[in-house]
Structures are given as C-alpha cells and as structure tokens.
Amino acid sequence: MSDTRIKQIRAREILDSRGDPTVEAEVRLEDSTTGTGQSPSGASTGLYEACELRDNDKSRYLGKGVRSAVENINEKLAPLLVGSDAADIYAIDRTMTAIDGSKDKSKLGANAILAVSLACAEAAAKSHGMPLYRFIGGVSASRMPVPMMNILNGGAHSSNGLDVQEFMIMPVGAADFSQALQWCCEVYHTLAKILKNKGMSTAVGDEGGFAPEITCDTEALDLLCDAVRSAGFALGTDFVFALDAAASEWKTDEKGYYRLTKSGEEYDSKQLIDRWEFLCGKYPIRSLEDGLGEEDWKGWQMMTSRLGRNVQLVGDDLFVTNTKRISRGIQEGAANAVLIKLNQIGTLSETIDAVRLAKNHGYNVIISHRSGETEGTFIADLSVALNAGQIKTGAPCRSERTAKYNRLLRIGEEVFRSGDDVYGNCF
Ligand code: PGA
Ligand code: ZN
C-alpha cells in the first residue's frame, strides 16, 4: 500500500559534471519508497536567478562546498517536512519557501530547496507506481521534445574566441525522437571529422560541444552547415539552427553599449538586432536565445517586433523561470519563448507555474539543463510531462548529457507507439 508521507530526509554533497560540489537530497516515505533529487549549476547565470548557496570556505573545494545547504536540509527542512505528504508538491514547496522567507531563497539556498522538491516528486511517483513524467503530467503528457543540441561551444563555456555561447542543431524534420537523436549524432560525428581534417581541435566544452579555436560566428555557422550537408541532410527542412548568444555576459556601459567579451566589439541594441537579422537571413536559424541582455527590456521589445514573426526569441537570463519576469515580458511584448531551468527558481511547483503562464500566452517552452549537470534525468521526464515540445540538454557527448537523451528514448518506447504523432511541430 502506498503511503506518501515523508518519514526521513537526508542530504549530501555530490559532484557535478565540472567536479564542483552540489546538493543531493534523499527522501524516504512511510511505505519505504525513496526518491533522490540533485541540483545542477550554471556558469553564465542570470542576475535574477534564485540564490545558489555556497560555503565560500576557501579550505574546501576552493570555496565551492555546499555543506551549509546540506545542513539546511538536514537540520532545518527535514524536521519540519517529516509527516507531510510528498505527493502534494505544491504544499511541500510552499512550506520550504515559507521557512526560507527570503525573496531569492538565499537563506536556505535554492540548491537545497530544489533538491528536496525533486526528491519528493520522484519518491511520490515511485510510491504510486508511476513513471515521473506521468505523475507530474497526468494523462495529458503526450509530446516528445525536439532536441536543441549544442554541438559547437563558445562564450563562458569554452576558452576559444567565439562570443556566442551555443551553436545548436534542431532535427525538426525527423519522424520521431529516436530518429532525431540518431540524426544529431550523425551530424555531430561528421562535424568531428570536418574539424579533424582542418587540423582543428575536437576537444569539447562544458556541454559536450566542440570548442575549436575559431573567433567568428559565421565561421562556426559555416561549419554547422557543412556538417549537416556532409551527413546527408537538408538544411532548413531536416535541420534548423538555434543560437544562444548569452548576451547578458556582454558587459554594457552606461550608454547601453554591449562590449563582446572576447572580440571586444561594441554594439548598441539596435546594431545587435541588425546583426541577428543578418545571421537569421543568411543561415537557417529559427531560434535565438538571449540575443540581448537581461536588463534591456526596450531592446527586447524592438527585437521581438522586428524578428519575432520568423524567429523563436528565447528569454533565459531575461526571465529566469520566474513568473513575475515572464508576466512583464508578456505585457511588454518581449520575446516569444521561455527557457525553463528548475534551479533558476528553485522549486518544481514554481517551474510548472512558469511553464503554464508562458503557454497560456502563446510563448514556446524549452526545458533546459545547466552547464554544470549531474547524472540525474529529471528534466527529460519534465519535458514530456509538460508537453514542452523542446529540450536543450547539450551535445550527444558526456554522460551527464546523454543520460537525459537515453531517458527520453526509454520514455518514447514506453509510452508511444511508432507512428503516433507526438514529435515535431515545435515552433
Ligand atoms: P549555464 O548555461 O547553465 O552556464 O547558465 C546555459 C544557458 O545559458 O542556457
Ligand atoms: Zn542561455
């Protein structure tokens, strides 16, 4: 018999994919079912994200330890949550948010709160004998996401000269998720061959994409075109491209000029939009994330009215999975899509609310990993549960990335018969 009342919560420090500590929580229910949850960690983090609590004790892990967040779970959250129903995710999250009491979860740490929130969901799903995507999404969970695969890395995720952080391929023409994955891997390996033939490095960045020593975004896009064509696919129909500029990383001066971190080039908002318009015209780019900075609401409005009809304009640092910021975007006509990262807001229920709000206003939704990840596969289930339509979880390389894709393969096999119309049409 299922009994989803929480009996015990324990937390520990584990390692993320960069070898930095992160938080894992383990929840045990009255019926002895257990669930775990892990917090990921970003590198190009938004200014308005919930707070990731680190010890700043230089004698351990160069200050990056998370023992204080772990203690907050074991000593502050656990005693108050024992006896609560883990299946009532909204109530669990409200309790934790209230105990924290701060606006940005800085008292207990969003990394502590999120790990518990995810562990409760996993334990409750298991206790009910349901896969996670079904527990969260119910009978309506029915779409497999189109992957947005980051196969060329720049920006804060690599040491090369590219200012744009992510160059991604999207297999929009595939028949189903498993074919989509196969196509992406074929392009990824073809790109490796092309780089090798040119004498360029095939070492990878934090998200598994290659990080060759190039400096120019058009050179990167030409390489992508070459890889797609050489692998035997058609540009624009089989594959389209997506960029994440991560422009909040580009320092702006008092006059609002963006200064690109690596090239040192300067642009105002209008000139950057001109640049994106040029690139979207020259290449099959259908999605552009953080093309402008997180404070540049006026610029976002201008970019959305100029490019928004043809291009998916994704707010990551702009929205930080926060319903207040998404509401502002909706009111002001800024962006037409939202990147969703659980640890930007710090609870599962607030993440679900952010997705619901975005969808209700016609914004597209992309469920996303962080550059520092764990082997946990929660976001794979979440993308199906919420019918997001798109997932961004890196290259088909590094096990913390492939774990999510492999989980999606299993979900696809479990739920959907071949021929079901459950993949694609994501824009
Ligand atoms: P981050 O990068 O996890 O380092 O923030 C991902 C992104 O910007 O989308
Ligand atoms: Zn981003």
Considering the protein shown, what is the CATH homologous superfamily of the largest domain? Enolase-like C-terminal domain
- Per DSSP, what share of the residues sits in E-state strands of 2 or more residues? 15-25%
- Written as H for each helix and E for each strand, in order along the chain, the element string is EEEHHHHEEHHEEEEHEHEHEHHEHEH
Main β-sheet, spatial strand arrangement = 4-5-6-10-11-12-13-14
Q: Please provide the count of β strands.
A: 14
Mean model confidence by pLDDT: 96
Class derived from helix and strand content: alpha/beta
Structural description of this entry:
With 427 residues, the protein is of the alpha/beta class. The chain folds into two domains: 6-129, 2-Layer Sandwich (Enolase-like, domain 1); 138-423, Enolase-like C-terminal domain (TIM Barrel, Alpha-Beta Barrel). It has helices at 67-81, 89-100, 110-127, 132-137, 177-197, 217-230, 269-282, 297-307, 323-332, 342-345, 348-360, 378-385, 399-415, and strands spanning 6-15, 21-29, 34-38, 146-153, 166-170, 240-244, 251-252, 258-259, 266-267, 285-289, 312-315, 337-340, 364-368, 389-392. The strands form three sheets. An eight-stranded mixed β-barrel has the order 4-5-6-10-11-12-13-14, surrounded by six helices. Strands 1-2-3 form a three-stranded antiparallel β-sheet. The chain has a three-stranded antiparallel β-sheet with strand order 7-8-9. The mean pLDDT is 96. The structure holds 2-phosphoglycolic acid and zinc ion (ZN). The site of zinc ion has 6 residues, from loops.
